[in-house]
């Protein structure tokens, strides 16, 4: 066993976890919109990456592999689960200017929560994982044109909602 | 108003990378390697031992008898929760929602005026480690004039069991319960949908690590 606590020879994996963990937690947060679920998703993703680490290391793009794994785990779980709402979001304050940032954040979450999981994943992959549309399409099983259309519709919904907030 | 996507999506998505999180990854990788090695060794005894040590509580058939104790926490939507698995605690705040109820519904939509709806009260239970673990949701139909709760209860149950297969049914103190399974390539997630005589639906669902026997014990512990 290495000093890190990971199995011997996996110091590189530990370094990867520490270097990319925050990024994956953030990405998972955008997908799930819920802290505990994001932590659960990121942990499951990193465990799978850890199990396949020798191969992934050879391929040279572990973060890309982790993003793909996370999206697959997220979509598979969503397919299995009924879309019960999990959190009541706060009503938007309209008079206190100091709450504007909070309102925008809540509105963003509400709009993202209202999107189908694939559409939300497309937005997350485009803007939080910086993947090109072709790669997003391969991941989500659709064409790049569909990716662009899904992202565009999602952002339009967000713009409408934020405009209504103001 | 900002128009670029980065500004539109500017919410606080950052979560701290804690030592506990890193330790969880470490444990998870180690445990699954153990399981894989045990399975590869082909020894049933080794598999059983590792499974017992590592995946404690994953048996879906072993009955868990809820202890006769005081209710765990405050009532949820008029129901006492008499048993929860060891090591989980309820979130301090319950969720509350309203959904339009229709035949073939696939998601929770805000009900409009004059539309049959249901109120949902939901309590989340987390493990001590912080991982989300179990949810109990009480769905109470609010029929419009001329509607009936029984039909709405069936529609709610249909919604809750989309994509699952039925495992068993049993009578619980609060009503008739159905254990269902959503089988994935690696994980099977169990849920229980309980319907009371007056059409209230209680959903109990866990994450992939919560065994069916524990969910069944939770269902048997729910009383009015």
Automatic annotation (TrEMBL), chain A:
The keyword Transcription regulation applies. Transmembrane segments: none annotated. Keywords: DNA-binding, Sigma factor, Transcription, Transcription regulation. It holds the Pfam family Sigma70_r2. Residues 109-158 form the RNA polymerase sigma factor 70 region 4 type domain. Gene3D superfamilies: 1.10.1740.10, Winged helix-like DNA-binding domain superfamily/Winged helix DNA-binding domain. The keyword Transcription regulation applies. Residues 19-81 form the RNA polymerase sigma-70 region domain. Belongs to the sigma-70 factor family. ECF subfamily. This is SigE family RNA polymerase sigma factor.
Automatic annotation (TrEMBL), chain B:
Keywords: Membrane, Transmembrane, Transmembrane helix. It comes from the Bacteria. The chain crosses the membrane at residues 34-55. This is Uncharacterized protein. It comes from Cryptosporangium japonicum. The lineage of its organism: Bacteria, Bacillati, Actinomycetota, Actinomycetes, Cryptosporangiales.
């Amino acid at each position: 066993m290495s000093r890190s606590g990971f199995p011997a020879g996996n110091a590189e994996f530990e370094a990867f976890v520490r270097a990319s963990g925050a990024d994956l937690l953030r990405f998972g947060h955008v997908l799930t919109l819920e802290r505990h679920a994001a932590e659960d998703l990121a942990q499951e993703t990193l465990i799978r990456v850890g199990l396949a680490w020798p191969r992934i290391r050879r391929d040279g793009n572990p973060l890309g592999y982790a993003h793909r794994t996370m999206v697959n785990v997220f979509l598979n779980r969503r397919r299995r689960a009924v879309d019960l709402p999990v959190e009541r979001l706060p009503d938007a304050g309209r008079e206190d200017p100091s709450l504007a940032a909070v309102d925008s954040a809540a509105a963003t979450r509400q709009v993202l929560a209202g999107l189908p999981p694939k559409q939300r994943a497309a937005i997350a992959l485009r803007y939080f994982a910086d993947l090109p549309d072709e790669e997003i399409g391969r991941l989500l099983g659709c064409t790049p044109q569909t990716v662009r259309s899904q992202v565009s519709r999602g952002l339009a919904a967000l713009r409408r909602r934020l405009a209504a907030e103001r | 108003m900002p128009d670029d996507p980065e500004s539109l999506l500017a919410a606080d998505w950052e979560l701290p990378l804690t030592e506990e999180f890193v330790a969880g990854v470490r444990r998870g990788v180690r445990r699954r390697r153990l399981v894989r090695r045990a399975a590869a060794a082909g020894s049933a005894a080794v598999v059983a031992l590792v499974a017992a040590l590592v995946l404690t509580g994953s048996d879906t058939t072993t009955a868990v008898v809820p202890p006769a104790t005081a209710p765990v926490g405050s009532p949820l939507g008029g129901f006492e929760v008499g048993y929860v698995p060891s090591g989980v605690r309820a979130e301090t705040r319950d969720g509350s929602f309203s959904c339009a109820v229709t035949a073939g519904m696939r998601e929770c939509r805000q009900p409009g005026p004059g539309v049959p709806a249901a109120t949902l009260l939901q309590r989340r239970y987390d493990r001590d480690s912080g991982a989300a673990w179990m949810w109990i949701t009480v769905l109470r139909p609010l029929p419009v004039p001329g509607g009936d709760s029984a039909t709405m209860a069936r529609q709610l149950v249909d919604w809750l069991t989309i994509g699952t297969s039925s495992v068993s049914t049993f009578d619980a103190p609060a009503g008739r319960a159905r254990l269902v399974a959503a089988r994935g390539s690696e994980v099977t997630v169990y849920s229980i949908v309980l319907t009371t005589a007056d059409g209230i639906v209680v959903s109990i669902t866990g994450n992939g690590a919560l065994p069916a026997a524990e969910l069944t014990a939770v269902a048997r512990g729910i009383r009015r």
